[in-house]
Amino acid sequence: MNLMGILVIIFLTSFSFVAHISYGDLIDDVCQKTDDNNLCVKSLRADPRSASADKKGLARIMVQLSQAKASDILNQTKVLLKQIKEPVLKQCLEVCRDNYDMAVFWYSDSIKYIDAGDFDDATSSTSGPMNDADTCDESFTEPPVRKADPRSASADKKGLARIMVQLSQAKASDILNQTKVLLKQIKEPVLKQCLEVCRDNYDMAVFWYSDSIKYIDAGDFDDATSSTSGPMNDADTCDESFTEPPVRKSPLKQKTDEFIHFADLTFSFLHQFKKL
């Protein structure tokens, strides 16, 4: 979240120095001024609106992408708050909920300033979400004072991590099952081949999550976290199979996009638990 936040600030700031650029090169020229040119270009190119967007349009898209990321984390935090009972973890998640709610608000504010052509205030507004994300992160690293058996913290930590992984695994299983259904219906050779790639990769994703759960149960959060990176690669491989010539429209696109967002959140949450 913070990497994207920093990128947005630099991106908006760079507009102050952009001059005499043809719109065809605007994405490349502006992204070159950011800390992560590849992420900037990839993020904008992935949005079909970018192709015809002017300076204001690109700024709007970049902020909206960050806002969507913040909204994803906010929604996932709300889901976890309904499931977690351990007081300290619940308190940390409440801090995250409140701060990511504010982050979404900051980005809405920034969009209003962009629409008004006020890039100074638009840029200032995007600094708020980075502070909000930091506050969320820091809530997990502060030493919690527990009067109860300290082993309960470890148990709840495992439970929270397990829930995250199981939710991601359920989404991967859902896509896997849908792919199997489509494979029985699709006759077109290239599309069928793409779906076979997806089937194999989502089958592997489900396996990775099972592996991660085993590591969580063993208290090995390093390997548990590493195992959750595999499904993200598997989902990317599925997506990419449709973009290779001859290009085919993926019937799984919406679900895979949602899964990739969720898988990324799962990886981020488990990575955070390593610090607890």
TrEMBL record:
Lyase found in the keyword field: no
SUPFAM superfamilies (alphabetical): Plant invertase/pectin methylesterase inhibitor
Signal peptide: 1-24
Coiled coil: none
Keywords for the protein's UniProt record, in alphabetical order: Disulfide bond, Signal
Biased composition (Basic and acidic residues): 144-153
UniProt-annotated stretches for the region Disordered: 124-153, 226-249
Top-level taxonomic group: Eukaryota
Domain Pectinesterase inhibitor: 22-148, 150-269
PANTHER family (alphabetical): PECTINESTERASE INHIBITOR 5-RELATED, PECTINESTERASE INHIBITOR-LIKE
Entry's family note: Belongs to the PMEI family.
NCBIfam families to which the protein is assigned, alphabetical: PME_inhib (TIGR01614)
Name assigned to this protein: Pectinesterase inhibitor domain-containing protein
Organism: Anisodus acutangulus
Lineage: Eukaryota, Viridiplantae, Streptophyta, Embryophyta, Tracheophyta
